[in-house]
Amino acid sequence: MALSTTDAEAVARLRLAVVRLARQIRQNARPGVTPSQLSALSTLDRHGSMRLADLADHEGIARSTITRIVQQLEDRGLVTRQPDPSDGRSAIAALSPAGRDLLVDARGRAEMFLAKRVAELGDLTADRIADTAAVLERLAARP
Questions:
Q1: Rounded to two decimals, what is the model's pTM?
Q2: Secondary structure class of 90 (helix, strand, coil)
Q3: Nearest by Cα to 51 from 94, 99, 108
Q4: Amino acid 138: pLDDT
Q5: Where do the structural domains in the chain lie, given as residue ranges?
Q6: Tell me: the pLDDT tens digits for 89-109?
Q7: What CATH number belongs to 5-140?
């Protein structure tokens, strides 16, 4: 599907705005972990304990990469890892209480940052914010 020049420019502006805003949110959340580590923690929080292979699939990364990420998180006490009872070659990762606390803190900081930025705009209503969020959620949904 070809876009008109105007549509292509709007898509380019949207991409850049989303990238910049996401970076600012991450920086202001100050979670003390990498974006990949934060994503893995969030996945475990959202979906519960899971095998490392399943976590790698959720994250869309190689199994060797998720093994390294989980090891780093385990070393910091943010996740626990136990042998998979059904397959001794596999491990199951779970979010630890410290990992959950880190997520709660990071989300709170991120939401405070974003709420402050929205308030500074002044002319946005809650309905417009909700409509914009709905559009972004549809764009972010996996096919």
A1: 0.81
A2: strand
A3: 94
A4: 92
A5: 5-140
A6: 889 999 999 999 999 999 999
A7: 1.10.10.10
